[in-house]
## 1
Amino acid sequence: MRPVQPVPTLSPDSRHRRKRHPLHRRGTLALAALPPLAAGVIWAVTAGPASGAPEPPAAAAGPPAPALAGSPRLYTPLANPDAYKQALELGQAGGRLGKDAIRIIGMVRTPHAVWYGDQTPAAVEKDARAVTRDADVDGSMPVFALYNIPGRDCSHYSAGGASNTAEYKAWIDGVAKGIGKRDALVVLEPDSLALLPSECGQGNEKEKTDARYEEVNYAVSTLAALRNTRVYLDTGHAGWHDVASIVPRLVKGGIKNATGFYTNASNYQTDEANSWYGKLISSCLAHVDAGGKAEDCPSQKDPKAEAQAWIAENVTTAPGRMKHFVTDTSRNGKGPWSPPADKYTDPQDWCNPPGRGLGVRPTTRTGDPLHDAKLWIKTPGESDGLCLRGTPGPKDPERGTVDPKAGDWFPDQALELVRLANPPLLPPGHAGESGGAEPEDASAGSGIAEGEPDPGR
């Protein structure tokens, strides 16, 4: 069973540039029909993400780039156009649905990753250059999720990617040329290490797995050589691989040349589970780097006190010299879904699970010296794919509908995510909004991107 399903947002280059959205062509007549607050917020967001005073940019350094310095402001690309369409329709309905429109807008105004995959080298170079230049204008740092590895996802829901190693290397070269000397954070190839070709059962497994490691190493060395690019490698998530299982893959994948690793991409594990898993992996990597064995490292399933005691005894490396990590908080506000017992032969708990909520807003202020950032790697509101849960389909039996294909906008799921967000998307005390976890920084409770002005003020 595949515990995680990252989904690319394969968007045209115009999706990430500061251009007037098509909703503007409807003019003020369309917005005049909306409740005043919803109209104002929708007008503000379709003008493009607001830009506030930029925070200090990440420090420049040679490869591998150091952990994030200061509090770099994260980049907010324009959202899936269907998100704007949903917000407009909700705003026109008014009432509670009008509040949902504001929540959808809060979600799409939040910094999230720009996904690339399946383009030609020339196209991805052009797209990456456009985004990094755009981010430079408002003093922010883009997060790129690169998803073009040959044989990605075992050719299942998110099948695609480059045809062979040579084609992939040319594609990575295009990404590197597009980024150039500008700031960028790269989440490299979700599932590339957590789901190796040797686990796909499709033949030629050793040859394909050897090629996978060659491809990941090439991408790391090429992108980490860029002066201001930080590269993080795949670990799946805390509910999947044990620490002793994923660490050797990281080592073989070139973690020594990377800034660090990421966990929980497109999944739902809690912040506590993600942070602990990250600390254990980082500690195990330091142990291995000092000559120890990964098999001796504690598991995330072990009693925490015992694992802490092992770290204290076996890891003496300073945090600044250890491998850092970032986590995906885009959809983990309610934690992972627990499928009904014995109901499905394959519950697919990673695939459009019901009743989930947005998690903590992206931030580089985590309070943990090893934890560089909490990010929205997955684009919340976009489908994980056609979820059948072991049934013949075509409907998702848990939802009673045919789920959109991977990467398409999923209005029902988007509503769940914004309504169940933890912390809430609307400020505490707003009509119809219940309490929740306190935001980690001042930008977090409102859904407004870090460092941006609130358009309602």
## 2
Amino acid sequence: MEFLTDEQAARYGAFAGAPSRVELERFFFLDDADRALIESKRRQHNRLGFAVMLTCVRFVGVFPEDPVAVPTQVVDYLAEQLAIEDASVLKAYGERENTRLGHMRELRQVQGYRDFAEVEGELREWVDARAWTTGDGPKALFDAAASWLRERRVLLPGVSTLARLVASVREAANQRLWDTLCGVLSVGQRAVLDSLLQVAPGARVSELDRLRRGPVRVSGPAMTRALERAAEIAALGVGELDVSGVPPRRLAELSRYGVDGKASLLRRHSDTRRLATLLATAVHLTTRAVDDALDLLDVLIATKLLARAERETTREKVKTLPRVERASAKLAAAVQVLIETTSEQIDTSTGEVFPPAASLVEAVWERIEAVVPRRELAAAIAAIGELTPPLDSDADQAWRAQLVTRFATVRPFLELLTSVVDFGATPEGLPVLKALRSLPGLLGRKKVAPAEIDTELLVGSWRRLVLSAPHAEPGTVDWKAYTFCVLEQFHRMLRRREIFARNSSKWGDPRAKLLSDAAWEKARPMVLASLNLPATAGEHLAARAELLHATYTEVAERLPANSQVHFGEDGRLHLAALEPEPEPASLVELRQAVNDLLPRVDLPEVLLEVLAWTGADTAFTSLTGGEARLADLDTTIAALLVAHGCNVGYTPVIGSAEPLTRDRLSHVDQTYLRHATYQAANAALITAQQSIDLASAWGGGLVASVDGMRFVVPVPSVYARPNTKYFGRRGGATWLNMINDQAAGLGGKVVAGTPRDSLYVLDVLYDRDGGRRPEMIVTDTSSYSDIVFGLLTLAGYAYAPQLADLPDQKMWRIDPRADYGPFTDAARGRVDLGRIERHWEDTLRIIGSIHTGAVRAYDVIRMLSRDGRATPLGDAIAHYGRIAKTLHILRMADEPGYRRQIKAQANLQEGRHALARKIFHGKNGQLYQNYQEGMEDQIGALGLVLNAIVLFNTRYMDAALTQLRTDGFDVREEDVARLSPFVRHHINMMGRYSFQLPELPGGLRPLNPAP
């Protein structure tokens, strides 16, 4: 029982406070069979007592020893169903113990309740299987085991009995995991792995510490070091070991411990545990090192080579612009004279035609030199020839020529790139990959013949730069220019995954990750049922076509009465701007009254109180998989959330108390705080938020929005990207986060730079931390594309982007002959149902692979779109999405309330981001993390603090509303729905902080006295 707190042990098999309304309706509702049993009892107190026994064993897993002591809400709810007016008659039930015991025997027989001893062996097998596959901690396993017993109508054993079973089975499963992994290692491999924990002479860190540090700077030498690191890890020889017998989740759990834990801690473990952890870590680092190297290569080519060459070329053009302008003006003047003197002249008043003013060359030159001397004209021609590209060049030649001068950046790592990374390619990418592999053989040679390169790859100005370089001897090519020609196309193919890395997880082939034929056949029925999709497309597409036609017709009929819609001369649809909803005086008064009642607190007190309400601090489990052996862990967790969430570091939260010492903070930070524990803690906060009446007044949790919040990253990082609009001269990252209409943040994802949100929306939706699955998804225009519309619709979401550029959006139809009135010209696109039907099976497999987690939606979208052009399958999905897109536009035109709902959800997200900026105030709100995991962890802390403040505000605002109603204040429900949980005037977020939580006898602190 050591892993259970006294409070948790006391809650086992008992009521932990009054059940929620949802729990009452689920466990204490009496169906017809229940009523038939109850009605056989003669007196009211016996019927009510029997109902208590019947429902309580269903809820807590044991028969109550004192039925009178159950929460009054339970008794009242049961009495109401049984039409018993006076619930206090239950007291008479407790007077005869034999009656209670008789009812227990009857319920055991009729309901089929069993003793624990009958199923102990079966439970051991179930706990063992769960512990082996999931790696859940003992608390989670204990709760799951109790639920398993209740579901099978097994009376719960004593708390110590179940705790001992869970602890022993989990320990045996862990030992089996370590033995299994250790068993695949040879003696030599064990020695190699153990050597990773040694500190080399003259070094300050172990070999493991050195190898798990990824690249942060973007440069040619850093790229070389990243590839050397990948080669060194691959040389350990464990990446190819067969570890398929271990569940992937357990392997990932061990590798996370190895990547984040200290080498000194690993050395103290038993041989099998230490070697198993090192093996999992080495397997993880084998692919992670390649991921890091290719991430760095992507940034290096995009920002340090291509973008810089374009910038430098632009600067050079700006410098030469005055010379070009002067030379061009002289040439223009000379040509104007030439045209005027050698062309026939027409008198516009009489129409008379005169011969050219000069017919001899000498006369023409005489007139030209009167305007521009021949010497200056020759100089102008020379300047134009020098400063402008040839007529047969393209717009890219200047910057490509500039790019060739940066060959020294890429030469050191070219050979390493093809030897360390195991590249593969599709037929389209294969020629480029072959060319890439041939590059090391060209380096440093004085002469390279055209026959030694693939001239088919020389597109545009590359042909001139490679084959006709001024400095190249006749019959040879400029192999440096050819190298960059290949690298440019390789970079594009790599991003499109036409070229992929087999020994990488992030840059691998998404096609290989799609469900295989056998796996798809197995998952297909579940996917189709879950997403409500048909196996064949015919009837489904016919129904979609009928819906689109009917919607066009109905909306067109209502247009005369719709003042919000008008059509331009070109037939494009325009919607009038929504007028802001006025704020009635009652709303202003209510908002002020509620805000006045909110208690004044420090941010740490908010966090400590929320952790106490929700038990979210128990989600922060140790990397080692063991239980916390630290008193007042919640205080340390709260301090670290302030340090990271407010971006202020340790100094303001360090105190003299043991939970706040620097050593304790550092240990807990490294051991307990990580992305997975943030997610688990956030799930507890989301659950608590949705149980509050005020949150239900805001929405049902079925509408959500996804939007990005930008952070400047002022430190060198591969995971930051430039964007002068958002980040100035530095790099940055985007926190793409999701919030539902109850103001709860459901999760998020940190992505480098400012990529199109549409690439990541589905991944954010499928990786939410908790809460109800939203049905309607709101985004801004940058998150929109027809393919994303199709995938989201297939996944069962109603997609509602704001479409700020609505007049430029093409509306689509299926029947080209249909007359849709004013929409006829706007509906200028045609959906090809045949194309959708031809690709339906592949479409189902794509969405099934995303739905089951086999592949990331990001990789699929990149695969379906090539340089802005969709593949045939991507085009079919886009056509499917255009039906939903057009229905969305028609609804926006027809329902102002729909537009307001979209705008309100977008405003809610903006309010959350504004609060996030106030919280994340330290270091000018900049993100000082140079590795992706560090960014995710710190932003995870910010997201958790945000949800904690929202939960704190919602609960106290709900209490304030109750108080105001009691005091006779006119509280209108329409005003309640417009209150915001993002108020912050009452919370101190700056300065040195207090981590003392006052006694809260009623569960809440007193409201602030009304002014």
